[in-house]
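Weekly sync, protein design subgroup
Attendees: M.S., D.O., the rotation student, P.L. (late)

Item 1: inverse folding check
M.S. brought a backbone from last month's batch and wanted to see whether the design step gives back something sensible before we order anything. D.O. pointed out we never logged the input encoding, so this time it goes straight into the notes. C-alpha cells as presented (400 positions):
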C-alpha cells in the first residue's frame, strides 16, 4: 500500500450545501475543517508508507476520524458508519455525498501504524502547531498536569500462575520457531500442565508442590534453551521473561536446591523492577494509599486551562507506574519548550511538588510550578510552609 497525497482538496459543493443547510450552527467535525483546514495533511505521513503499491486511503482523513471517534465516544464500527452516513463527517473529510467510506478494520490497522516509534508525538506536534497558528493555544499562559493510571492488557496472576504461564509462553514460542529443542523434554505431564492458559485461582490445591514443580520445569526448560540449543538458535523474548521471573521468585540454597523467595527467605525484588506478566515485561504493580492499585503504567496529561480560551492538551507522556510523578516534570517542560508552548504558571498535584524540580523549572524555563506540598514533607519544607502561611508551594515560595 502506497501514499498518494490528496492534500488541498476542497469540500465538494453539494456536500457544503447540504451540510450548511442541515447544520446551520455547525458541528465539531465541521469546525475542524473550517477553522483548521484539517489538523494534518497527507504529506505529514509520507514516511509511514512505501513508495510503490496500490494507493491507500488518505492517512490525514483516517487520523481525523480517529480524533472525532474518540471525542464522540464511538466504536470503530460506529465511526466507519458515521463516515458513510453523517454529513458533517463527510464535510470534515472533504468527501462526496455518495462516498462509501471504508471498512471499520482500517482504523485498527491505522492505529498500529500510529503506535510505531514516535509517530504519535510527531502528529501531536503538528496538530499543536496548527492550533497555535489558529490562535487557540499560546505560550506563557496557565497549564496544568494530571496523572492517571493506564492498565496493562494482561491478566492478574498469582506468583504460581505467573511462573506457570511464563513456562507455557516459552513452550509456545519455541514450538513456533525451533520445535526440535523440545524433543525429550515435553511429556504427557507437561502437556497437562501447560497445554492451556493457567487459571489456578488464589487457593489452588497442593500449592507448595505446584510451586516447586513449576520452578523445576522452568529451570529444565531454560537449561535446554540457553545452554543446549543448536547453532543459529537465539532465545526469544518469552525465554528472557521467564529468566527474569525465575530470578525474582526463586534462588538456589546452600545445597544447590531450588528455594522460593519470600520477604524473609532470599528477599523479594522491589515492585519497581518486578515483572508481573510474561507478555508485558515493562508493566509494573503500584499502590497509591490503601485503595488504588493497578498493574500497568502512568500517563501524564498536560493541558491549557486559561479562563479566556478553550482547553487544549499540550503534552502526553507515559511512564512506568512505579515512576515518581516529579520525575516526569523535566521531560514535560523540555517538550513544551520544543513546541514553543511553555506556561507561565504550571498547576500540579502533590505528586509533582519536589523542591528540586520546582527550582529547576524556575531556573531553566522561568515557570512557576504551583501545587500542594506532600503530606509528609521534610523538616526544611515544613518550616517553609510555616513561614509563608500557605498550603501550596511554588518555585517562588521555595526560593524565599
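Designed sequence read out in the meeting:
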Amino acid at each position: 500500500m502506497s501514499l498518494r497525497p490528496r492534500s488541498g482538496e476542497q469540500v465538494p459543493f453539494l456536500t457544503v450545501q447540504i451540510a450548511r443547510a442541515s447544520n446551520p450552527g455547525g458541528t465539531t467535525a465541521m469546525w475542524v475543517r473550517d477553522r483548521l483546514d484539517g489538523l494534518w495533511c497527507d504529506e505529514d505521513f509520507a514516511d509511514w508508507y512505501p513508495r510503490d503499491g496500490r494507493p491507500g486511503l488518505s492517512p490525514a482523513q483516517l487520523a481525523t476520524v480517529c480524533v472525532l471517534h474518540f471525542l464522540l465516544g464511538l466504536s470503530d464500527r460506529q465511526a466507519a458508519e458515521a463516515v458513510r452516513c453523517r454529513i458533517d463527517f463527510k464535510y470534515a473529510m472533504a468527501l462526496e455525498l455518495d462516498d462509501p467510506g471504508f471498512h471499520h478494520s482500517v482504523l485498527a490497522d491505522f492505529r498500529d501504524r500510529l503506535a510505531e516509534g514516535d509517530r504519535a508525538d510527531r502528529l501531536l506536534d503538528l496538530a499543536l502547531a496548527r492550533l497555535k497558528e489558529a490562535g487557540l493555544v499560546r505560550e506563557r499562559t496557565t497549564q496544568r498536569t494530571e496523572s492517571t493510571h493506564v492498565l496493562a492488557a494482561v491478566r492478574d496472576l498469582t506468583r504460581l500462575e505467573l511462573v506457570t504461564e511464563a513456562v507455557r509462553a516459552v513452550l509456545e514460542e519455541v514450538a513456533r520457531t525451533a520445535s526440535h529443542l523440545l524433543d525429550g523434554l515435553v511429556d504427557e505431564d507437561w502437556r497437562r500442565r501447560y497445554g492451556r492458559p493457567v487459571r489456578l485461582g488464589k487457593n489452588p490445591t497442593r500449592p507448595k508442590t505446584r510451586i516447586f514443580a513449576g520452578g523445576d520445569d522452568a529451570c529444565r526448560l531454560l537449561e535446554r534453551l540457553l545452554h543446549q540449543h543448536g547453532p543459529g538458535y537465539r532465545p526469544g523474548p518469552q525465554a528472557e521473561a521467564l529468566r527474569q521471573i525465575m530470578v525474582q521468585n526463586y534462588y538456589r540454597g546452600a545445597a544447590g536446591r531450588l528455594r522460593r523467595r519470600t520477604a524473609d527467605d532470599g528477599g523479594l525484588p522491589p515492585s519497581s523492577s518486578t515483572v508481573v506478566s510474561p507478555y508485558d515485561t515493562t508493566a509494573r504493580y503500584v499502590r497509591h494509599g490503601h485503595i488504588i492499585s493497578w498493574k500497568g503504567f502512568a500517563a501524564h496529561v498536560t493541558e491549557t486551562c486559561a479562563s479566556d480560551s478553550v482547553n487544549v492538551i499540550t503534552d502526553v507522556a507515559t511512564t512506568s507506574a512505579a515512576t515518581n510523578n516529579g520525575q516526569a516534570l523535566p521531560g514535560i517542560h523540555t517538550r513544551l519548550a520544543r513546541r514553543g508552548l511553555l506556561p507561565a504558571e504550571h498547576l500540579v498535584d502533590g505528586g509533582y511538588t519536589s523542591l528540586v524540580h520546582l527550582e529547576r523549572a524556575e531556573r531553566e524555563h522561568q515557570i512557576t510550578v504551583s501545587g500542594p506540598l506532600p503530606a509528609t514533607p521534610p523538616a526544611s519544607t515544613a518550616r517553609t510552609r510555616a513561614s509563608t502561611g500557605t498550603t501550596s508551594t511554588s518555585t517562588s515560595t521555595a526560593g524565599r
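Discussion: Residues 284-399 form one domain. The mean pLDDT is 88.
Action: P.L. to compare against the previous round before Friday.
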